[in-house]
Write a structure and sequence with these properties.
The complex is a heterodimer of chains A (about 230) and B (about 425).
Chain A: E1 3-14, E2 18-29, E3 33-37, H1 44-51, E4 59-64, E5 67-68, H2 74-84, E6 85-88, H3 100-110, H4 115-128, H5 144-156, E7 162-166, H6 174-189, E8 194-197, H7 201-204, E9 209-214, E10 217-218
Chain B: H1 2-38, E1 42-47, H2 62-71, E2 77-86, E3 89-91, E4 94-96, E5 99-104, E6 116-119, H3 124-129, E7 133-138, H4 147-152, H5 157-164, E8 171-174, E9 177-186, E10 207-212, H6 213-220, E11 236-240, H7 247-261, E12 268-272, H8 273-316, H9 318-326, H10 331-367, H11 378-405, H12 408-413
Parallel strand pairs in B: 5-10, 7-9
Antiparallel strand pairs in B: 1-11, 1-12, 2-5, 2-11, 3-4, 3-8, 6-9, 7-10, 8-9
Classes of the chains: A alpha/beta (about 230), B alpha+beta (about 425).
Chain lengths: ~230, ~425
C-alpha cells in the first residue's frame, strides 16, 4: 500500500525553545482514517498544519505523496496544498460574503477550472451531502451541521489525496457531531485518506487508528491499529 | 463610506486632469488654425500706446507703410490699418448710431481673408483719389446660436436689417459724409470663422466698413468728434514676409528703417504673430498647469484613500486570507485579489471623473463666452481612465503585498 504521508522525527519549535512537536514519526497509508487525540496544546493542530503544508517544520522529514516537503519552494507548497489537501475546520471557516455554492467552488477557482465546470462539480458535492437546495443561501443562514457539511464539500472539491479535519465536531452538539463523523466514515469507506483531530474519545474510538499525542510526542504505538 | 470618499477624490482629480487635457488640446487646435490662416511670415508693427513723444517722431504713419513697401518690394504684404468709430449713419431709410470705420489699402485683402465678396473691393485708384467708397462687412451670424446669446439677445438691429436689404451700390451717409457702397464682405458664420481661434479680437456685430486709408484721413480722422487729422497716424501695419525664414531678417530691417524714419524714437513695436501666439499659449498653459497640479494632488489624495481602504479591507479580512490560503490560494492570488479590487475602485472613480469632467466642461462652455475652447479627444478619456486605474494599482500594491505575506496559520487563527 502506498503511503500518503511519511513522517520522520517531526519537530516544530516556536520561538527560541517552545517545542510544539518533539520528534514524531508515523506513516499514513492511502485510504486510512486516523484520529489524532490528546489534551489541548499538545501540538495536534500544529501537526495538522504541517501535514497541510500551511506551517513549516523545524527539523525532521515529512514526505507528502512521496515528495519531501522541506525541498518544496513556497509556491510549490501552495500548489501541492491546492492539489492534494482538503481542509475541514472546527469553526467551519466559510466566507460569509459568498454563497454556499461559491464557497465550495473556491478551491476549484484556484485550480484554474472553468466556472461552468467548477459550478457543476460543486453542485454535485452539495447534492451528495444533502445540501443541494441550499446552494444559493449564504453560510450565515445555515445551521452548524449544515455549515460543516459545506466545509466538507469544499474540502472535497479538489478531489484531495489527504483530508485534514481539525476538530470538525468541536463546535457542534453531540448528535450533529455524530452525523458529521458518519460522513467522514462514509468518505473513508469510499477510499479517502482522512486525518481527524478530535477531543471526543468516543468518536475517536470509531476511527481505524488513533494517534495519541502528549507534550508533542506520540504516546501510543503509532503504527499499530487499535481495533 | 471610506471607499466612496476615495472614489470621489479620484473622480474629482480625474475630472480636473481631463479638463486640463481638453483645454490644452483646444488651445493647440485654435493655435494651429489661427497659424494656418495668418501664415508663417506675419509681423505686426504697432504704435506704442503709452509712449511719450520727445517731439522728434510723428509716430507710426501711413508714410511709414509706404516707405516699407518702397524699400522692400519683396514683402508679400504691407497693410496699414487705422480704425475709428463714427457717429450716426443712414442708409436706404435705416438709421443707427455707431459705425466702425477701418481705413486700409487694397493690400488688406491679403490679410486673413475669410470673406465672400459681392461687388468689388477697394482699388489703388480709390486710395490715390481718397474716393468716397466703402466696402461693408456683414457679420456672419451663427449656424447654431449658443443658448447664452439667445438669452442676452445681443443682436444688432443693423445686422438684422442688412440681412433683409441689399445695399450694394447704394449710398450711405455716415457722420454727414456720403459714401458709395462698392462692395459687401460676407463674414463666414461664427463657428466656421478661423480668425476666431486666433487673436480672439472682439467681434463687432453692428455697422462696419472698410474705406481707403486716405479717405479715412480726409473725412474720418482719428477720433470720433475730432477735427480731421491729416498727419496720417495709424495704429498698425501688418506685414507678411511670405515665408518663415526671412521673418527675423525683416524684423531687424524694419526696425532700423523705422528707427531712422522716427529719428531714433522707438515709439513702435514689431512682433511676430507666432511669437504672440506662443506667449498667449504659454500663459494659458500656466493656468492649465495649475489645474493639472490640482488634479494630480486630488488623484494622489484619492490614491492614499485607496491605500487606506485596501489596508482596512485587509485587516478586516485577515481570516478570509487564511482560509483562501488554506484552500489553495497562492500569495500571488491574494495579491491580485486586493490589487484588482483597488483597481476596480480606481476605474469606477475614473469613470465618474470622466462623466463629471465632460458635464462640467459642457456646462462651462455653455455658460461662458468661449466655444471650442476645450476639445475632447478619445485618448483623453483613455488616459484619464488609465491614470485612475494606475492610481488604484500603485496605491494598493503595498497593502496587498502585506496581505500576501501573512502567515496562513496565524491568519487562520486571527479573530
Amino acid at each position: 500500500m502506498s503511503h500518503v504521508v511519511q513522517c520522520r522525527e517531526l519537530q516544530k519549535i516556536y520561538g527560541r525553545d517552545f517545542a510544539a512537536l518533539r520528534g514524531i514519526s508515523f506513516d499514513i497509508a492511502a485510504g486510512e482514517m486516523i484520529a489524532v487525540v490528546g489534551p489541548s496544546g499538545c501540538g495536534k493542530s500544529t501537526l495538522l498544519n504541517i501535514l497541510g503544508l500551511l506551517d513549516h517544520l523545524t527539523s525532521g522529514s515529512y514526505l507528502l505523496m512521496g515528495e519531501e516537503s522541506l525541498r518544496l519552494s513556497e509556491s510549490k507548497r501552495t500548489l501541492w496544498r491546492r492539489r492534494h489537501i482538503g481542509f475541514v475546520f472546527q469553526a467551519f471557516n466559510l466566507l460569509p460574503r459568498l454563497s454556499t455554492l461559491e464557497n465550495v467552488m473556491l478551491p476549484l477557482s484556484y485550480l484554474g477550472q472553468s466556472r461552468a465546470r467548477s459550478k457543476s462539480r460543486a453542485g454535485e458535492l452539495l447534492d451528495m451531502l444533502g445540501l443541494g437546495l441550499k446552494s444559493q443561501t449564504t453560510p450565515l443562514e445555515l445551521s452548524g451541521g449544515e455549515r460543516q457539511r459545506v466545509g466538507i464539500a469544499r474540502a472535497l472539491a479538489n478531489d484531495p489525496d489527504l483530508i485534514l479535519a481539525d476538530e470538525p465536531t468541536g463546535n457542534l452538539d453531540s448528535k450533529t457531531g455524530a452525523d458529521i463523523w458518519r460522513i467522514f466514515e462514509e468518505l473513508h469507506q469510499k477510499g479517502r485518506t482522512i486525518v481527524i483531530v478530535t477531543h471526543d474519545p468516543a468518536l475517536a474510538a470509531k476511527a481505524g487508528r488513533v494517534l495519541r499525542i502528549q507534550d508533542g510526542q506520540i504516546v501510543a504505538n503509532p503504527n499499530r491499529r487499535t481495533s | 463610506m471610506r471607499s466612496f470618499l476615495s472614489f470621489l477624490t479620484v473622480a474629482i482629480g480625474v475630472a480636473a486632469l481631463l479638463y486640463t487635457f481638453a483645454m490644452t488640446e483646444g488651445q493647440n487646435q485654435r493655435m494651429k488654425r489661427a497659424m494656418e490662416l495668418t501664415g508663417p511670415g506675419r509681423l505686426v508693427i504697432s504704435a506704442k500706446r503709452d509712449y511719450q513723444s520727445q517731439g522728434l517722431s510723428t509716430g507710426l504713419t501711413y508714410d511709414d507703410a509706404r516707405a516699407i513697401r518702397e524699400a522692400y518690394p519683396g514683402l508679400f504684404m504691407v497693410s496699414p490699418e487705422q480704425q475709428a468709430w463714427a457717429g450716426r449713419f443712414q442708409v436706404d431709410g435705416f438709421e443707427d448710431k455707431r459705425f466702425q470705420f477701418i481705413g486700409v489699402t487694397p493690400e488688406w485683402a491679403k490679410r486673413d481673408w475669410v470673406y465672400e465678396l459681392r461687388g468689388r473691393f477697394l482699388r489703388w485708384e480709390d486710395v490715390s483719389h481718397a474716393a468716397r467708397v466703402c466696402v461693408l462687412i456683414e457679420p456672419g451670424g451663427w449656424l447654431k446660436k449658443p443658448a447664452w446669446l439667445k438669452f442676452f439677445g445681443m443682436d444688432n438691429p443693423f445686422t438684422i436689417w442688412m440681412k433683409r436689404h441689399d445695399i450694394l451700390g447704394k449710398t450711405m451717409v455716415i457722420s454727414g459724409e456720403t459714401y458709395f457702397v462698392a462692395g459687401i464682405l460676407q463674414e463666414p458664420p461664427r463657428e466656421k470663422d478661423p480668425r476666431w481661434y486666433g487673436r480672439g479680437r472682439g467681434f463687432y456685430l453692428g455697422g462696419r466698413g472698410i474705406i481707403p486709408i486716405t479717405t479715412f484721413f480726409k473725412f474720418v480722422g482719428n477720433r470720433q468728434g475730432r477735427v480731421v487729422d491729416n498727419l496720417g497716424k495709424i495704429d498698425e501695419i501688418s506685414v507678411d514676409t511670405g515665408q518663415e525664414k526671412t521673418l527675423a531678417l525683416y524684423e531687424r530691417r524694419l526696425r532700423s528703417l523705422l528707427l531712422a524714419r522716427h529719428r531714433g524714437e522707438e515709439d513702435f513695436e514689431i512682433r511676430a504673430y507666432a511669437e504672440m501666439y506662443a506667449e498667449q499659449m504659454a500663459e494659458q498653459k500656466k493656468a492649465a498647469l495649475a489645474i493639472m497640479v490640482m488634479g494630480a494632488v486630488c488623484v494622489l489624495a484619492g490614491g492614499i484613500g485607496i491605500m487606506n481602504v485596501t489596508l482596512a479591507t485587509i485587516y478586516s479580512r485577515i481570516r478570509e486570507i487564511g482560509i483562501r490560503r488554506a484552500v489553495g490560494a497562492s500569495r500571488r492570488d491574494i495579491l491580485l485579489q486586493f490589487v484588482i479590487e483597488a483597481m476596480l475602485l480606481g476605474f469606477l472613480g475614473g469613470l465618474a471623473g470622466v462623466g463629471l469632467g465632460v458635464a462640467g466642461i459642457n456646462w462651462f462652455l455653455k455658460g461662458v463666452r468661449w466655444m471650442e475652447i476645450a476639445t475632447f479627444e478619445w485618448h483623453h478619456f483613455a488616459l484619464a481612465l488609465l491614470i485612475s486605474i494606475g492610481t488604484g494599482f500603485i496605491f494598493s500594491v503595498y497593502p496587498a503585498w502585506i496581505a500576501a505575506k501573512l502567515d496562513p496559520v496565524e491568519a487562520l487563527r486571527y479573530e
